[in-house]
Structures are given as structure tokens and as C-alpha cells.
Amino acid sequence: MSQTVAIATLGCKTNQFESAAIEEQLRGAGYTIVPFEEGADLVVVNTCTVTARTDAQSRNLIRRARRLNLQSRIIVTGCYAQVEPEALRRIPGVAMVIGNDEKKDLLRYLAEERERQLVATDGLARGRGGVALSLTSFTDRSRAFLQIQNGCDAFCSYCIIPYARGSSRSVPFDEVVERVERLVGSGYHEVVLTGIHMGAYGLDLDPKSSLTELVLAIEERTEIPRLRLGSIEPNEITDRLIERMATSDRICPHLHIPMQSGSDSVLKRMNRHYDAGFFHRLVEKIHRSVPEVAIGVDVIAGFPGETEEEFDQTWRLIDHLPLSHLHVFPYSRRPGTPAAEMAEQLDGALIRERAAKLRSLGEAKARRYAERFVGRVLELVVEGGEEDGWRRGLSRNYLGVQFRGEAEPGDRVWVRVEEWTAAGLRGSLM
Ligand code: SF4
Question: Cis bond leading into 291, ω under 30°?
């Protein structure tokens, strides 16, 4: 009787892509994938360590897996496992702690008979490199995430990711194009390119390449109807990419740009290599070229030493810019990062207060952006099942729209947007 396995994933699109690839490997090896709540024979917890909160969520998932089935063999992987293997190894029920690079060796580890616990996280340090995991389809996704790059060499002072993901490395150019073509062959209407530091794509390849060249090649050499870009650093968005987004009917008019702060002095302490003026001009340039573009930004609230004035500078810049949504991160002290050693760590209540202010600003901007599309017909890719008689789809410009009518996850449909509600935009199927 085949063994059952459950996979629980925290964190970014790259981690989700890797979990889907692990699932495909295990399914291919004869395992039966079951929901986490069923207490599987084997449980893979793909952790995240971007904040103290995700660390806690990762530990809770491991403990829950154990409570669901005392016999479960628990495999812990992901960024938390990479940077804190010892802390996780000690949690009862953990059979293996493997690093991010070791994810591709999971089947080999499972095949090896072993009594004792396994801890293997040195692949990154040995720079075995590459982005080894690939997959042909997602079981529960109507849009396909495709990892094109891994790792980061930027070392922003607050960020633990370079320590968890290693140096930047890219999937070979032609291989990415082939993988997109395979996903088109599997029936996907949308591919989302993801990476840890996607703007660094191609710098490590021989011959060198770039994200912009890759996007143009995917558009030229594949039939993918919708190509969406994951997060790109502000100083890595090229004019050519903006121009192509302005004229293309396949590159989705949506950019996600980590801003992190609108204060030059804070950006300096964050070791970010642009200033508020640059960010301001970049967003206005994109907006002039692609007037309906959705621009989402990441912003950190409460960075060490952030004064009232510095916070106001961030708030005012966001308030002024034509942004469509915000991802607000309350600063989280990450042991091992330079920011964690900075003197003026702010009080938790102040951090939460500033994060709340930014979130409500973000909600107001998201509503203002969404309301611009009431009365318009939007093309959606249907996501997930029916809820209370409503289906939901995602537009090219990253708007969620609910509608009634017959459609399956993954379908491309056209909906006339009729109203903005607290649950988001609603409309009727054309
Ligand atoms: S660019 Fe900065 S924030 Fe992004 S992963 Fe790299 S170090 Fe972290």
C-alpha cells in the first residue's frame, strides 16, 4: 500500500514552487498526496524565516503534524531549516532537517534506510548551485509559478534570505523558455516568473543575460497568453522592460517593487542602493508608459532608529504615488543580520502602530485603483472553487473579481465589472 504524504508550505512564491516540485517528485515515486489535516505517514514542512512570526508558524506546523499522527515521519526543509537546523532538529517527531539545496535530494534520502535523524544543510555552502527543481504542472493552481532564479547577493541589512538561499544563480536561458512552453502544453494561460532576486537573473550565466532579455524571448518563442513578473528590485526595472510592457498584450501590466522605505536615511541604513527620489521617478515613469499598470510595493514599518519624520517621509511618498496595493511588513529582528545589531530597536507597539497606519493607507489606495475598473470588461483567469455561489478570477492587472456563472479553475473568462464591494470587485460573465 503506497505511503501517504502531506506538504505544508510557508512563505514566498519560490517556496511554493519548490513544494509543488517536491510534490510532483513524490507523486512520481508512488506516494499518495493527502491534505495536511489527514495526518500522513510522511509530512514535509517547507519553512520560511523571513520574520519571527514565520519561524513560530513553522514550529507550530511541525507540532501540529505530530499531534495529527504520532507515527508521522516529519521532514523539515526551507529557509528556517537552512539557518536554524539545530533548533528544528530538537522538536519531537522530526526525522530529517534538510536545507534548501537538499530539497532536490529528498527521494534519495527517503530511499536510504536510516535509524538516526538526518540533518543536511551544507549544499548551499558547497555552492552546488543551480536551480535544480522543475515541474510540469501544479495540482492546485490555475496559474503556474516558474522559478527562474534562486539566491541573493544584495545583503540588505534587515534580510536573512541571502544566508538561507545562498548566492544568486539562474536557470539557463533556453531551459526557462522550454519550461514555459511545457506549461503552455499543460494548458496554463498564465505563467508567473519567480525568484529570490529576479532582477539579478542571467548575471551568472555564460554568456551573461538579463531578466528583460528573458521576458522578450519568452514572448517571442512561446504561446503563453499571460506572462506575469514576480517581485523586481527598483533599480533593476529597465526602460526596455517598461516599453515592452506598454505595448505587449501578453506581459501582464503588473509590477511588484520592494520600496521598503521612502526615507533616504533609512534606505541607507537598510543597505538599499537607491533613494526616495529615484523610486518616485521610477513609479511615475512606469505609470506614464503603462497608465493602467498595477504597481504593488513592499514597505517595512519600524526599521531600527526610524524617527517620526522618517516614517512620515515614507507615508507621504506612498500617499503621493499611483500605487495599487501595499505589502506592509512590521520590522522583524532577524538574528545574524546587521540590522539586528543596530542600537535603536523600536518598541513593538510603535512598530505595530506604524504598520497599521501604512495598511490603512494601502487599503485606501487599493480601493481607489480597483474602482477605476468598474464598468470595464476584464479578462480573468479563474482561481479556486465556488464560494457562496461566487467564482473568483484574477485580471491581467492583478485585480480579483468575483462573478456568478459556469467556469472552471484555470479557465480564461471575460467579466464586466459592475461594482466595488468590501469583498472586492464583482461583475457578470460576458
Ligand atoms: S534583495 Fe534584499 S530583501 Fe531581497 S532577498 Fe536580497 S537581501 Fe533580501
Answer: no
